[in-house]
Batch of 2 targets.
Target 1
Amino acid sequence: MSQAVTKKRLTTSAMIASLAAPGQRTKAAPFGHALTELAATRLDIVGLSADLSKYTDLHIFAKTYPDRFYQMGMAEQLLMSAAAGLAREGALPFVTTYAVFAARRAYDFICMAIAEEKLNVKIVCALPGLTTGYGPSHQATEDIAIFRGMPNLTIIDPCDALEIEQAVPAIAAHDGPVYMRLLRGNVPIVLDEYGYKFEVGKAALLRDGTDALVISSGFMTMRALEAATVLEADRVKLAVLHVPTIKPLDEAKILAEAAKPGRIVIVAENHTVIGGLGEAVATLLLRNGITPVFYQIALPDEFLDAGALPTLHDRYGISAEAVVASIKAWL
Amino acid sequence: MSQTLSNVALDERAYRIRRNALRMGEVQGQGYIAQALGVADVLAVSYFHALTYYAEDPHWEGRDRFLLSIGHYAIALYAVLIEAGILPEAELETYGSDDSRLPMSGMASYTPGMEITGGSLGHGLGIAVGMALGLKRKNSKSFIYNLLSDGELNEGSTWEAAMGASHWKLDNLIAIVDVNGQQADGPSAAMTSREPQVDRWEAFGWYTQRVDGNNIEALVEVFDRARRYDGLKPRMIICDTKMAKGVDFLEAREMNHFLRVDADEWQKALDVLDNGRPT
C-alpha cells in the first residue's frame, strides 16, 4: 500500500481557522479595516491590545496610527483598567483580546472599572464560542453567559464581514460599554444578499417561512440561512430572524415573530446551551405567555474537544449539515 | 488652587481631617476609622500642599486627579473633601446612611471629588495608568495621584500596572502606598511578604521614596521631590503610617482594621484628639 493511500486527510486543531467554506466569498480583516477608516474622522479612537493585536486584526489600526495604539502586554487586568482610565480622559478605547481572556480573566475589571461607570469602552474579542479547535483554554463557549449578567453592557454577536464593518461605527456612536464578538482573518460575506443594515439593539427578519422560525446570532445566522436553502428543496420553509444584539434584546421583534402561529421556534447560537441567546429568548417568550414548540441549537455544557473546526462543528451540531439534520428531525 | 491661598497649617488640616472622620465613624458606630486616622497626614499634604484643584469645581479639567483605589478609605477621603470645601460639613451626619452621597465604600457616581469607584482592590493603579496616558494625549500638565494600601500590593493587577507605568514612562503618575501593616485577616506581613518594597518598586522602574507617613514635614519633602523629579519614570511614595494615629487608646488595639467603638468612647476619642490639637 502506498503512503498516499494510508495517509489520513489533513486536519488541524491550530488556533486560527477560517469559518469560510471552500469557495465562499470572504473579506480580510473587516474589523481592522473598518476601525482604521473610522479613526480617520474620529480622532478620539485609541486601540489597546494585550499581545493579540495581530490575532484580532487590530494591527492594521496600529500600523496606521502607531501613536494611538497601546500595547499593554499580556496583562488583561491592566488592559481593561487602563482602557477605563483612557475613557475617563475623553478617549474612545477599542480594546481587543481573545474572548476567553476578557470574559474569564478580566471580568472584575470590565465590571467595576468600565461597566459600573458606563464608560465608553468597546471590547472586541476574537475566538468567540467554538471558532478555534485549540481546546477549552481558547474556546469562549460561555462568554455571553458570563457577560449577560453585567449591567450596562451591550453585547453584539455579528454574523459576517459586512456586519462587522457596519457594527464598528455603530458601536463607536453608541454611548456606553460594548462587548462585541469578533470574527477575524478571512471572514465570510453573507448578508449582502439580504439588504441588511446593522443597528445596535435591532433584530432583522432575513427571510420568512411558515414551518419554523430560527432565531440566531453570530455565524449561526449564516448556518441558518444555509440550512434554509437546503430545506427549501424539501419544501420546508424556514424563517430566519437575525439577533446580533444579545443585550439588550429586541424584545418586540422577537415576540412578534415567535407569536405567529404554526411555526416551531429554534434558537441557534455559537455558545453553550446555558445562559446565551436561547435562554434569553426562552424567558422572554415565557414571561409574555408565548409558548411555541421550542428547540435550541447550541454547544453542549461541556469543555469541548480539540480538533479541526469542521470536525468539531459536525460533532457539536453547529455545522450546516448538522443544523439541517436537527431541524428535519424536529419538524 | 486652594492650598496656596490658605494660611492654615498642615497639622491643623490633619487634625480637622481626623475629627471629621471620627464624627462620621460615630454616625455608624464602626468603620475604617483607624485607617482614616493613620492616613490623615498624607491626605493633608496631598490636598493642602501637593494637589492643584478648585473646590467649587471639583471636576475642572486642569485639576490634579486623586484616585482612591481603596474604597473602604472613603471615610478618610470624605473627611478631607469636607475640609477642602468640596463637600459641605453638614453632610458628614449622613455617612453610610440610606440615600447619602457618602456611602461606606467610595464610588465615583455618588460623591463629588471621588474620581473612581474603588472597593475591588487592585483596580486603581491600572486606571491611573490609563488616565496618565490620557492626560499625555491631551498634553495636560496635571498629575494623577493614586492612593493604595499595602494590602493592595497582594493583588497581581497592581503589579501589571506597575510594569505598564514604567514601560510608558508615566512621569505624570504619583502613587502613594499607605503601609499601615494591617489587613482584614491580620498583619500584612503574615499575608505575602511585603518587603523589600523600595527595592521592588525600583526594580519595576519607579522613582521610589519611603517616608514616615505621619511626619508632615517629611511628607512635604517627598511630595515635592516626587513632583520635581525630572526622570521619565512614575513616582512612588511609600508611607509608613500608624493605624489610629492621634487617638492613643485606639492605636493600642491589636486588631484595628475594622474598628467597633462603644458609644461612650467616641467622645473620649474626640477629647483625646482635641487635647492633641496643634497650637
Target 2
Amino acid sequence: MMTGAFIAGAGLFFTPMTVLMTALGCLLGIVIGVLPGLGPLMGIILLTPLAFHLPPVEAMGLLIAVYVGGSCGGAISAILVRIPGTPLAAATLLDGHPMHLKGKSREAVGLAISASAMGGLIGGLFLVFLAPLLAAVALRFGPPEYFALTLLGLISIAVVSGEETTKGLMAGLMGLLVATVGADPFSSTYRFTFGYNPLLGGFNIVAIVVGLFALSEMFIQITSGHLTEKPQVPWVKTSFDSIGAALSRWVNLLRSSLIGTFFGILPGAGGVISAFTSYAVARANSKHPELFGTGVEDGVIASEAANNACCGGAMIPTLALAIPGDASTAVLMGALILLGFFPGPDLFSKHADVVGGIFLAYIAANVFLLVLGILLTPFFVSVIKIRKSYLIPIVLLLSCIGTYAIQGSAFDLWVMLGFGVVGYILRRFDYPLAPIVIGAVLGPICESSLRRSLILSGNNVDIFFNRPISAAILIIDIALILWIALPRGLKSTIRGRAIGLMKLAPEKGGPD
Amino acid sequence: MLRGFSKIVAASALALGGAGLLAGPAIAQSSFPTRRIEVIYPWTPGTPTYAVSQIIANAMGNNLGVNMPVVAKTGASGVNAFDQALAQPADGYSVIDGYVAPLVISPLFKKANWNCGDFVPLYSATSNAFAVVSRADEKRWTDFPSFIKYLKAHPGKTRYTASAQLSLPHMVMAKVLKTVGAVARNVPYNDLADGTKDLRSGLLDWMVVNPGIYRANKKEFRVLAVLSGLKEVSKIYDGAKRAQDYGVDIGLHSLAPMGWDWWLVKKGTPAPVVAKLRAAMGKALAEPAVHNKILQIGFVPTSYKPDQYSKVCTSVRQQLQAAMGAITWETNELKKYH
Amino acid sequence: MARLRERRLIGELVVSAGFLALSLLVFEQIVVVFAPEGAASGGALQNAALYPGLLAGALAALTLVQIGKTLTARRAPKIEPDQDNGRVAPEDAEWIRAFICTAAFVCYLIALPPIGYQLATPVLMFILYRSLGETSLFKVAFFAIATSLAASFVFERLLDVILPVGRFGIGY
C-alpha cells in the first residue's frame, strides 16, 4: 500500500515548484526556529495564509518543511547565545552551549543539525511504513497511561538538575504550579487569576521560556562587561564532517530517535518532553554521566535527534487518526482541511497520492535540513561576531516581537519580563531553569490526565494499576525514583557489578 | 551628564521624526481600512472552525483590499479573546469571531459580564450541529431508542464526553438526558479529538461530536441522533435521523442547540466603518467558492442578516438559560449512583 | 570574600523564602477563593484545589529541606568566578547599566500599547545601544531606526504579524 502511495505521490511531489517550496519552507523554518519566541507552531500559523493559494502538495511541502526546520532551528541560538530559540531546544542548551564555550561552535551546530535531520528521517521511516499500525498503539494510551508517562517526564527533572537535585525539584514544582494559572478546564474555576483577566488564559509557554532563558541571559551579559569589544571569532568553514560525528554515535542517535518517535506518536506529549527524556536516558546510559552538562556531543545528539524524530512521530496520529500529535501538527491538519482534505483512514484510501506526496515532502524536508543547515552554519556562527552592545538589543527586540506574535498580547511581554527577573535570580543561586520548562509543559497534561482518569473510574485510583500499560509505566517510575534516591556510593557499586556481569556474558551486552 | 542627556533627547526626537515621516501617509488617509484588520479567534488554531474563519477572512480581506490575519487568542472558553477584543478601540480594526460559548454561555455562568448588546453584528457566519455517536461496532445498542433504553437501565454507568465542562455540547446533551430521564457520567475533554481517541479505545461509551470530528472519523462512528431541529443538518451527518424523528423533543430550537458564530465589532464602532465591513463580509459569504469550501468542511453558512442578530442572540440566550438547569440536574443525579 | 559569602547565604535564604511564599499563596487562594466557590472539595471534577494543593505542599516541604541544607552546610556556599570574565560579582557601573536597560524596557512595555511599535521601538533601541556603550550618536540613531524598520518589515510585511499600532494607528 505504501509503495503505491509513494509512486502516486511522486508525481505530485517531484515538480520544480513543490521541491522549491519544500526547500524554501525548510530555510524559513530554520530562521523562524533561530528567532527567540517564534517556533515551528507560529511558523506554520504565519505561513498558512500563503499556503492557501498553492496546490495541496506544494502547500503541505512548504508547511511541513517549516515544521521540520523550525524544530531544529532553536538549537542554533541555544548553542551560540544560550537562548533556546524554541522551547524544544531547552534541553539542547545543556550541552550545546558549553560546547560553544569550549570553542566548538561549528561542531555543536553541525551536530545538532545532523542529529535533527537523521532523527527526523528515522521518525519518517516509522511514519511511512508503520503509520496505521502505530496509530493503533497510540489508541492504547488513555488518561491513566498519560499520567504515568508525565511522571516519567517529571523524573527527568532530577537528571537534568545535576548536583542540585533539591533545587531542580523545587524549580520543577514551580513550573507545574505556574501551569495551573487560568481557568480550570474541569470545574471552570478561575485559579490564581486574582481578578485580573489577562491571566485567564494562563501563562504562555513561549513567554515563559523566552523570559527565563533569553532575558536572564541578557541581564547576565550586560553585567559581565566587554560589551563593545569585537568578539574574536574565526570564520568557520562549511564542513559535512558532523554527519560522520553523529553517525559514529549511532546507538545514542537511534535510541534518541526512537524515544522521539514514541513521544510523537502519543498525541499531546510533544517534542519538549521527548528531548528531555531522551537526554536523561542518554545520560543514564553513558559511561561518563558526570560529563553531561559540560559540553558532550551525546547530550546534543540526544535532545536534537529526539525532538525532530518527534515530528515524524506526531504526523502518524495526525494523518492516520485525525488526532493531532502536537500543537504544530494540529495546525498542519487545519491547513490540510483548509486545502480540502480530511485526514484519517479515508485519506489513505481515497487520496493515496496526497498521502504519498506528504510523506515525500517530509523526507525531503529532512534532507534539505541537513544540506541547508550545514551550508548555513558559518553564517549563523558569524552572528556572534556582532558586538554585544548591538547584539543584545537586537535579540531583545526579536524576543519581544516573537513573543507578541503568538497571540498579539502585550500582557505576554510582561510575563516574559517577569520570568526574566525570576530566571536571573534563580540562575545566580544555582537553580536549574530547565525543570521549570519541563514542569510548565507537562503540568496541564499531568493534571488533566490525573483528574480525567479519576472521573472515568468514579474517583477510584485502581484505574492506574488495573491497566497493564499504565501499571508497567508506574512500576518503571517507582524504580527510577528509588534509583535516584539511592546514595551515590551504592549506585556506583551496583553499576560496577552490573558491568562486571555484562563482561561475563558479552553476547548479552550491547554497545555504548 | 546633562549634555549626554540632551543628546539622547535630540536623537530620540530624530528617531521619532523619522518614524513619523514614514507613517505620515497612513495617518493622512481617512478612508477605512488603511491597514490590516485583525480577526480575533477564540479557540486553539488548527481546528476546522479555524479553517472556516480563515476562508471567510481571506475572502473578506480581498474585498476590502487589506489582509485580515486570524489571530488565535485562547483561554477560558473564549472569554480571554473577547476580553482582549473589548480592550481594543472601537475602530473596526479588530473583528471578533463571536462564538456562542463566550458570547452567550460564559455570561450565563457569570464567567463574563457582557451581553449581546455590547457588540455590533456584521453577518452570521456558520453553524455546526452536534450529534450523538458511539463506536461503529457497538453491540449494546443499535439506534437512538435502544441507546436511551440502555442508558435508563444502567443509570450513571456509561461514560461520555461532550467537549469541555459547561460547553454548549455538554449543555445540549445534559438537556437531552434530562428530557428522557437518563443519567450518564460526563468526562470533560478540552479537545474533542482526544475524546475520540478514548472512545475508539473503549474508555468512553459514547460521545457528542461536531461535523469536523465526524468527517475525520466517519467509519469509526455510528451516528445515533443529530441534535438539531433543522432538517438540512441531517445531510452533514450523511442523512442520520434527528432526535425529534424518534419523538424526543430536546426543547431547544433553531440555532439554540447548535454551535454558531457571528462576526462582531465592538459597540461604538463608527457606522460607515461597520457598513464597509458588512458589505465586504456579505459579499464574501455570497461567493460560491467560499460557500462550497465551508460546506466541504462540514459547516453550514447561516447567512443571517445583521438586523436578525439581536433576535437570534436573545432567543438563544433565553433557551440556554432554561437548559442550564440540566447540568445541575445531571450533577445531582450522578451523586445518587456513586 | 567573607562578606560575599555572607551575602550569598542571605540571598539563598531569601530565594527559599520566595518559594515558601509561593506555596503559602497557593494555600491562601484555596481557602479564600476556591473554597467559597465549592472548588476545594468533592470529586476530581469539582475539586480544582486538589492538584495545586498537592504541588504546593510538596514545594513547601522541599523548600524546608533546602533551607535546612543551606543552614547546616559546613562550608558557606562557594563563590565561583564568572565563566566569561573571571570575576565573582559585577561592578557598580555594570549594575547601573543593567538598571537603565531594565528601566528603559519597562517604559517601553508601558508605552507600547498607547503609542505603538513604530514610535516606541526606535527610542528603546537608541537608549539600549547607547547605554550598552556605543558612543557615536549618528551611528546609534541610524541603527536604532534601521533595526526597528527591518524587524517591522520582516514581521509585518512578510509574516503578516500585526504589531501594536497605538492611538495614532500607525502601522501597515
